[in-house]
Amino acid sequence: MRHFDHLILFETIRNDEIAEKLAGLIRDKKTDTALEKSAIETFIATQRILIRRIGRGQISGNYLQDHLCGLIAEDENIFARMAEDGMYKDLKRGMTVEELASSLTLEAKTVLLMAADEIKLFSELYRFDWSAYQVAADGYDIAAIPVSHKENRAPRELIHNAMTQTDSLDAAIMLSDYFHSYGSGVFQVSPAFSAEENGLVPIPNIDAVTFDDLIGCEDQKRTLTDTIDTLISGLPANNMLLYGDSGTGKSSSVKALLNMFAPRGLKMISVAKNKLTLLPAILEMIAGRGMKFIIFIDDLSFEENEHEYKAFKSIIEGRVAPRPKNTIFVVTTNRKNIVKEVWSDRQGQDDVRRRDNMQEKKSLADRFGITLVFSTPDKNEYLEIVRNIASKSGLVMPEEELAAEALKWEILHGGRSGRVARQFVDYMIGILR
């Protein structure tokens, strides 16, 4: 077995302590029965590291394979980036090197063959049987313990399937499918991220809301899905402003979009109002990536004395840098024009200055090609939302009693909205259990 120092693309594996130690054991072992003491100690040392991963598996396989799959997924190399950009999306398993030449540029073909060569190197480690070391160490083989399934195991299972292929070129093509679907580096960890001063932080538990959970707003939902479908298809898509009263489903609609389109490569980056200064760096980071991005700013508004909206307007319309073609802004707000208007904007100034001042504040909303209004549901819509949430939550009540209690609740708790309906159902489940 060649030394992992020969790896050029997959630096995470080349620099990984566990992978290097175990690869050295495979390379240097003399026989399956005559294992040197130092080799056994090295094997045991790797088990101590792997046991810390118990309970964190994401794939079918064992803990060593889980560890290697994580390293492969996190490696943001030129092969992963090319695959992410769709360079290899039309390739099929079983293709010969000659067939590749007619489908790829020389550069893309060279990188693919290099990836296949390196996969062949570390797939031997992936499939190696460590039972002889386990017997010699008179201990447990943590590496061989099957990984517990988790709900998010499916993406990593694609890597597992690639690494168990006997043909390394087929394995490289299958691995390129993973990177094209789920991204590479930090972006493969999750479909959603929060922008922080120290970088993008994955959001591990995403609200599983779907559009089926949102009653009404059919036109808004259609426009939302059509716009993201346009973005995913690589065509120019408009920024979207979602305007309406609190609790009417604006934020939930954005989460439903992510859940619908994440399997097609959509990512969401949530940016808080006090982190808007991070936007130029974020846009630079995601420009040119193969994935498509929603920059999501929830509940955005500016007071009359806050002038940061001018800088944000420059960013969103591309004055600072062109908005990447793979990105749109989706903003929710309770104010139609986002920036608060006061009476002094309309009086006490000459006509020209007054018009300029008001136009300046309204111009931010004009930077969104699509504005969707989410209205407060009427009585029948509100009760339909309550019935839907109650049904999915397992709340069983006579329909007339449910409606009567729901109407009492909305009077006492701020009016009709999807959020109020959810709070009512949660309350009833709590008192009836």
Descriptive notes:
This protein is an alpha/beta fold. The chain folds into three domains: 4-184, no CATH class; 200-374, Rossmann fold; 379-432. The chain has helices at 11-14, 17-28, 37-50, 63-74, 78-84, 97-103, 106-127, 131-137, 153-163, 168-182, 218-232, 250-261, 279-286, 308-316, 351-362, 379-393, 399-412, 418-432, and strands at 192-196, 199-202, 240-244, 266-270, 292-297, 327-333, 370-374. β5, α14 (308-316) and β6 (327-333) form a beta-alpha-beta unit. The protein is globular, with a radius of gyration of 27 Å. The model is unreliable at 148-153 and 342-346 (pLDDT under 50).
Helix and strand content put the structural class at alpha/beta
- Reading side by side through the largest sheet, how are the strands ordered? 2-1-4-5-6-3-7
Question: Could you list the spans in which at least 5 consecutive residues all have pLDDT below 50?
Answer: 148-153, 342-346
Number of structural domains: 3
Radius of gyration: 27 Å
Tell me the β content.
5-15%
